[in-house]
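User: Hey, quick favor. My workstation is busy. Could you predict this chain's structure for me?
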Amino acid sequence: MGRIAERLVELGIELPTVFPPAGNYLGCVVEGGLIHVGGHGPVAGDRVVTGKVGADITMEQGREAARLTALSILATMRAELGDLDRVHRIVKVFGMVNVAPGFNRTPEVIDGCSDLLVEIFGDAGRHTRSAVGLAELPFDISVEIELLAALDL
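Assistant: No problem, here it is.
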């Protein structure tokens, strides 16, 4: 068992089943020592977190949706790479939050993803980030996140 797999067990984290892309695209692409992970939402099995943060769900529920999204991203990465120990560091997270008018605490929502990445990868999980609020997201999901990570060569 690899270092990251051991860390997941230590934290009591089980990654969800990989959710297939919702259109004509790939969930992730490995190119030039990087893995580019396309937009993922808060999906685990039949559980999907939907609604606008600040109206339909609370900021804390949005934060949990971002954490769930990070788990979905990691499941896709593990399926592609075979082992998350190949991840050298998380480089960039781009978080989009489905927000009610006037809700502007998007960084706190996306912290649900960022905090989990640091919890799992340690300093290699620290990354640059954008966190934006949008009027709508596909299928009314509460959060959508993209990720870029550098791989060990």
